[in-house]
Structures are given as structure tokens and as C-alpha cells.
Design brief:
Layout (H helix, E strand, L loop, with lengths): L8 H7 L88 E2 L2 E2 L4 H4 L7 E5 L16 H7 L4 E5 L6 E3 L1 E4 L10 E5 L10 E4 L6 E6 L4 E4 L2 E3 L3 E6 L9 E2 L2 E3 L2 E3 L6 E4 L1 E2 L1 E4 L2 E3 L9 E4 L5 E4 L2 E3 L6 E4 L2 H4 L10 H4 L11 E2 L1 E4 L2 E5 L5 E3 L1 E2 L2 E3 L2 E5 L4 E4 L13 E3 L2 E4 L4 E5 L7 E3 L2 E7 L4 E3 L4 E5 L8 E3 L2 E3 L2 E3 L8 E3 L33 E2 L16 E2 L7
Parallel strand pairs: 3-4, 4-7, 5-8, 6-9, 7-10, 8-11, 9-12, 10-14, 11-15, 12-16, 13-17, 14-18, 15-19, 16-20, 18-21, 19-22, 20-23, 21-25, 22-26, 23-27, 24-28, 25-29, 26-30, 27-31, 29-32, 30-33, 31-34, 32-35, 33-36, 34-38, 35-39, 36-40, 38-41, 40-42
Antiparallel strand pairs: 1-2, 36-37, 43-44
């Protein structure tokens, strides 16, 4: 294992593979639903994000999961074969482990929100609010107004929005003096309907921050289960400054749907130890709308089980923003305060130690995911593709080699392209990345069929500044290359067949489950088992000779 991973990463890799409560996006099946303690209203969850459901220790629903069997491949161009055997007793089992309170995360003791990491946590008090409430809030039969609930809420408590067929309307905020703590978080919870669907919609107001729920320097707040519509942001969470000591900590955005915001359904800045799990973000609009935007040198983040689509700009973006965090504060790009390590409380111009897993990023009106000055992170088990512009980019906005998106692990993803732009790119000193066990396809989608397309640039590398990226056991279908020549340990096919997948989405939507490989997929059992990725997108344990891409048959 490479040195960059640190002494605690193996524990991370065994722990973080998706678990939680109600899944909040359509279609894909959860690995294993978590158990909520203290939830009221609805029972079992429905749907499921691309893998397990979302997170949340209390007040939760659950979603189930499923898996399959494997195949055999060998040689220069792999070919499908018979299903491989599992461990003792036959089929491999599924796993529903997650980060637990007190674990190490990338070699550092975790500081995430306890609502995510501790299934035994319960609030010291629940304040009930409703759209028309005017009571004390001590019970669901005497709910307070939302304004009164936000005035009352303190560390260790839960604000419980009662479900309503009519939408709530407004904007609410917690500031730095209003937040929770590592031991006693605040939970803002939306009651589910009987079928497990979201029971609370907020039409966001168009004043002030223009944000449904704004967390201005507030620490350790979880927001769980809302539908958030309109204005500029759905949830906005920011710290008090660019220096590490001023960063916000412990925000969790779980099982929410943000839609039709002018900018970003989910936005963070200067915010460490955050979790975004089980969310849907769609319709980010003309104000440079991303689905999820994580900015200002934030570190120690988990982004998993989310579905992002129909956003005008990059649907998922991490941008450390060194021009703001460093230059605007008279700090040079090569000053350790800008390009140093988060482990030392430095590096405000870079984001580090991010886990991006089990997401479905697709059908965007702009470009695919942007990893901008992102280092020492893991991107695994995602389905990414079909954008009007280009696909995924690892790059930076300065000329300092230390601020390139480098030393990352990009493992077991599916990357799809259907135009002449790049599907995966490494640019401007984004180097020493390990790209392994992925599937890349270039396709042309018609009204009723999908075929091989030689136009997409499956991999594009800036050879003038990057020379040490490693590519092993990747499968390429169709497309072409710029700056990369597939090596002996990679597989190339000149053809594509939609029947390699369970249900390839001709509408560019579908579900992540539609990309499960069938027995005819030519990349089964074609890669070595990686310690970064012991399970697949659905939480199934991988076999020793593992299938490429996000799913294990």
C-alpha cells in the first residue's frame, strides 16, 4: 500500500462502504438499511440511492440490498465466462459497515457528526414544529412554529418537522453560537410519509442568503430528509474563515432532495468533517448551478450514495479555491499555509482526505465532476457520465505543482462519454493518481439503440506536466485517447454492446442498477482485489479476481 494512505486507511477502507437509513433517490438498491432509534411517523424506507441508503443514527427508515455472481476474463481483451466461486459456503456476502464513532479516517481520529457515526445516540429533547404550529413544541399534538423551533433548538436536540401535504415556505438559519458539538449534535429532521417518501417540502425564500437552511459557522448540525425547492441554495453550510481553525465542522446533509435552485442545491465552504449521503440534486440553474459544490479548502469529507443530474454546471465539484483562500489573503501559492498538509493544519489552497463513493452522477447540462486541487482522496464505485460538455476532470487553477489534484485513488468506477470531449482528464500537474479497475465506454445513443462511438476521448492527459499517473486493469470500449496509451495490464475493445449491462438507459437517466454487468460483460473477473475497494456499489464483498467497474456480479 502506498505511503500516502497513512496508517489508518485500511481501517477506513473496511469501514466505509455504505450503510444507513432511508435511501432517497430512485431506483438503485441499498446495501443494507440502518436502524433508526427514536424515529416517528413512517416506517420502512423506499427507493435507494446507487448503493446503500443514506446515513443517520436516529429517526430513520431503512432500505434493502442485493448482489449477484461473477465471471472469468483473461488475456489482452477480456471475455466473459462462468461465474466464479465465492468464499467458503458459496456466494460472497454483503456488508453494511460504516464509519463508527471513534474510528480512524485516513489515519486521523474521526470528527464527524455523531448522528451519522453513533446508532445509539438519541436527542435530549425533541421540538415538534409544523407549517401552521403555534404551540409549545413539546409534542406532535402541540407543535411550535418553525421560527420558534429554530429559536429554541440547542446542542443535543432534534427539531422535528411534521409532514404536511402542503409545502412549508421560508428560510431559516443557525449561526456559530447556535450549533451543536461533537458529543451533542443538532438534528433538523423531516418526517417521512407512510411509504417512506419525503413528507416535508420547503419552498425556499428569495431573501437574504436565499437558502432554505443556512448554517453560518454552525458546527455539528445534521439536516435529514427534506425536499428543498427554489431560491439560490437548498442547504448552505460555511465556516468563519479560510484558516483551518476557523473552519466549520461536523455538518451532515442526509437523504434530502434539492431542486431548481439558481445555484447549488447543496453548497459548503470552509467546512471539514462533513457527510453528504443519500441526497438528490437536480436542476441547479443559471447561477453556475452545481448539484453539490464543496469549496474553500475543505478537508475530511464523505460524499456517497447521491444522485445528481440536470444541473447547468459541473454536477459535482470540489474546488479548494486557492485564488480566494490564498492570494486574496496575501499568501503565495507555494507557502505551506496554502499548499501544505491538512494534517498539520495547513493547506488552505487544497482539499484532502475525501471519500467519493457509490454515487450516480449523470445527464448534466454542463460538465462532469471537477476535482480541483484535491489530494490524497479515494473515488470509488461511482457511475459517471453522459454530459453535454465534458466528463470528469482532475486539475487545478494555479501553476504550483503542489496544488495539482494528485495522489488520489480512482478505483472501480464506470465512466461514460458520448461526444468528442474527454471522459476522464488529468491536467496541470495532477499526477501520481492510481487509476485501476475502471470501465470506460464511448457510446452513441439513438432513439432506440446505443452503439460504439469512437469520438469520446476516454482518457486525456496533459503530458507536459503529468507523467506519473498509473493505469492498471482498466477496460476501454470505443473512444480514443489523448496523451495515454493503454498498457499491457489494460483491456481494449473496439466494440460496445448494451447487453453487457442489465438496463442501459437510452434516456440518459435510468438508475445506477441498470449498469450492473450481465454474464456477457467482457470485464468480469478481470482485476485484482484492491484493499481500497473491498465491496461494490451495492455493498457486496468483492472476490479475489474482481469484476471491473462499480458492480460485482
Amino acid at each position: 500500500m502506498s505511503k500516502w494512505l497513512g496508517t489508518g486507511v485500511l481501517q477506513l477502507l473496511l469501514l466505509v462502504s455504505g450503510c444507513g437509513e432511508e435511501g432517497s433517490t430512485s431506483g438503485a438498491t441499498g446495501a443494507s438499511g440502518g436502524v433508526g432509534n427514536g424515529g416517528e411517523g413512517s416506517g420502512g424506507g423506499s427507493g435507494g440511492t446507487p448503493a446503500s441508503g443514506g446515513s443517520g443514527a436516529a429517526s430513520g427508515e431503512s432500505a434493502g440490498g442485493s448482489a449477484g455472481s461473477g465471471g472469468v476474463a483473461s488475456g489482452g481483451t477480456p471475455s466473459g465466462g462462468a461465474g466464479g466461486a465465492g468464499g467458503a459456503g458459496g456466494e460472497p456476502t454483503t456488508t453494511s459497515t460504516t464509519i463508527e464513532r471513534g474510528d480512524d479516517y485516513f489515519g486521523t481520529p474521526e470528527r464527524f457528526n455523531r448522528y451519522v457515526t453513533d446508532p445509539d445516540w438519541t436527542p435530549s429533547r425533541t421540538i415538534y414544529v409544523s407549517r401552521t404550529g403555534s404551540g409549545e413544541g413539546a409534542s406532535r399534538t402541540d407543535p411550535a412554529s418553525v421560527d420558534e423551533g429554530f429559536e429554541q433548538i440547542t446542542a443535543g436536540e432534534r427539531l422535528f418537522f411534521l409532514r404536511d401535504a402542503e409545502p412549508y415556505a421560508g428560510c431559516w438559519e443557525l449561526e456559530s453560537e447556535d450549533g451543536g458539538t461533537y458529543d451533542e449534535p443538532i438534528v433538523i429532521y423531516a418526517e417521512r410519509n407512510d411509504d417512506g417518501s419525503r413528507g416535508v417540502r420547503i419552498n425556499c425564500c428569495d431573501r437574504g442568503r436565499r437558502t432554505c437552511i443556512n448554517l453560518e459557522g454552525a458546527n455539528y448540525v445534521a439536516v435529514d430528509g427534506f425536499e428543498l425547492a427554489g431560491a439560490r441554495y437548498g442547504i448552505r453550510a460555511v465556516g468563519l474563515g479560510y484558516e483551518s481553525a476557523e473552519h466549520q465542522r461536523g455538518i451532515a446533509m442526509l437523504n434530502n432532495e434539492g431542486l431548481e435552485q439558481c445555484a447549488d442545491p447543496f453548497f459548503t465552504g470552509q467546512s471539514d468533517w462533513i457527510v453528504l449521503d443519500g441526497n438528490i440534486a437536480r436542476g441547479g440553474g443559471s447561477c453556475d448551478g452545481h448539484g453539490i459544490y464543496l469549496s474553500n479548502g475543505s478537508d475530511w469529507m464523505v460524499v456517497r450514495n447521491n444522485e445528481l443530474y440536470d444541473n447547468d454546471s459541473s454536477d459535482f465539484q470540489i474546488n479548494a479555491d486557492p485564488a480566494f483562500t490564498c492570494t486574496d489573503r496575501n499568501i503565495d501559492y507555494d507557502d505551506p499555509r496554502c499548499d501544505g498538509s491538512a494534517l498539520d493544519g495547513l493547506g488552505r489552497g487544497v482539499s484532502e482526505f475525501v471519500l467519493v463513493e457509490n454515487n450516480y452522477f449523470h445527464n448534466g447540462n454542463g460538465q462532469g465532476p471537477n476535482f480541483t486541487s484535491v489530494r490524497n482522496s479515494i473515488v470509488r464505485n461511482n457511475v459517471i457520465g453522459l454530459y453535454d460538455r465534458h466528463g470528469t476532470s482532475f486539475w487545478q487553477e494555479t501553476d504550483n505543482p503542489n496544488l495539482g489534484s494528485s495522489d488520489n485513488r480512482i478505483h472501480h468506477n464506470l465512466f461514460i462519454g458520448d461526444n468528442r470531449r474527454h471522459v476522464l482528464q488529468f491536467n496541470n500537474h495532477s499526477d501520481r493518481n492510481d487509476v485501476r479497475n475502471n470501465v470506460f465506454v464511448g457510446v452513441s445513443i439513438g432513439n432506440a439503440s446505443v452503439a460504439t462511438n469512437e469520438d469520446p476521448i476516454l482518457v486525456e492527459i496533459d503530458t507536459g506536466t503529468t507523467s506519473a499517473n498509473v493505469f492498471v486493469d482498466n477496460f476501454y470500449s470505443g473512444g480514443r485517447f489523448d496523451g495515454h496509451s493503454p498498457g499491457a495490464g489494460e483491456y481494449v475493445s473496439a466494440t460496445f454492446d448494451a447487453l453487457w449491462f442489465t438496463d442501459f438507459p437510452l434516456d440518459r437517466m435510468g438508475t445506477a442498477e441498470g449498469f450492473r454487468p450481465t454474464a456477457s460483460a467482457p470485464y468480469l473477473d478481470s482485476g485484482e482485489l484492491l484493499d481500497t475497494t473491498p465491496t461494490d456499489l451495492a455493498g457486496k464483498l468483492r472476490t479475489t479476481q474482481t469484476d471491473l467497474g462499480p458492480f460485482e456480479r
